[in-house]
Write a structure and sequence with these properties.
about 270 residues; alpha/beta; D-Maltodextrin-Binding Protein, domain 2; 2 domains
């Protein structure tokens, strides 16, 4: 009897350890500095917040960086648990559960400074070529405006280059992300580009960033609950603020070394 009891206890402990080891959370996203990217320290502040929140709940976390269209496809098919940093849309809500918000960012239009084009309403833009990264969300009104001449591009840097060389009249994207791209990356390739591209008003949207968990992920509903609990934990104990503060200092040091101001998390309010 004692041997049987000892065996049962051993089996229970082994099972629990096995389950703990299998508690994994995989995320996939695109490089999106200054929020998150493969080449940022700890993959950027949003990535570190997400990873830390999940680790408080006992998860082993994997974050992979790929082009956005692939990230969307991989998660919709269930190969990865979640998108990191997705904006909410009704269409996406059909395939994903959205977490509590992590951050928010201004999204709108960029143009060349030597262009005198302006707008007040979206309908004012119908005669212009507007670059849009495939599968990106801008705003509900803009995304639904099928009367606009939207030119799909594969990435933000491709779209900004097309704007710079005159192939596009506007490029729609997140303000802080493109300002970072201009100052830290494209300026080295195309000197002067950061001084010739500007973000214009009116702003199209203040988009909140979420972890979007695929409805095809294993235990998707439990992963949603666990992430939200972890995010609440690190917010209340001050870890969230410490992570963001650390990355803000690192970003300023990076900008100082490069000689360009770029953008910190200025898109967030």
């Amino acid at each position: 009897m004692k041997k049987i009891l000892a065996f049962l206890i051993f089996a229970l402990v082994a099972t629990n350890n096995s389950l703990a080891m299998e508690k994994r959370f995989s995320l996939v996203t695109v490089d999106f500095s200054p929020y998150y990217a493969s080449d940022l320290p700890d993959n950027g502040w949003v990535a570190e917040v997400v990873k830390t929140a999940l680790e408080t709940q006992g998860y082993e976390v994997e974050i992979k960086f790929v082009p956005w269209t692939k990230a969307v496809r991989y998660t919709k098919q269930g190969y990865y648990d979640a998108l990191l940093g997705a904006y909410y849309t009704e269409e996406r809500a059909e395939s994903y559960y959205f977490s509590a918000p992590i951050s928010q960012a201004r999204t709108g239009l960029f143009k060349r400074k030597d262009s005198n084009i302006s707008f007040k309403e979206l309908s004012d833009l119908k005669n212009y070529k507007i670059g849009v990264v495939k599968d990106y969300a801008t705003s509900k009104a803009f995304d639904a405006a099928d009367y606009l001449n939207k030119v799909l591009v594969t990435s933000s840097d491709v779209g900004v280059k097309m704007l710079f060389n005159g192939s596009l009249d506007f490029m729609t994207d997140t303000e802080a992300a493109v300002k970072y791209l201009l100052g830290q990356t494209l300026e080295k390739e195309l000197p002067g580009i950061s001084e010739n591209i500007e973000f214009i008003k009116p702003v199209l949207a203040m988009n909140k960033m979420y972890v979007a968990i695929s409805k095809k992920a294993q235990d998707a509903d439990l992963k949603l609950i666990d992430f939200n609990q972890g995010l609440r934990t690190i917010y209340l104990d001050g870890t969230f603020r410490k992570i963001k503060s650390k990355h803000k200092k690192l970003l300023k040091e990076l900008q100082k070394k490069s000689g360009h101001s770029g953008s910190d998390d200025s898109g967030e309010e």
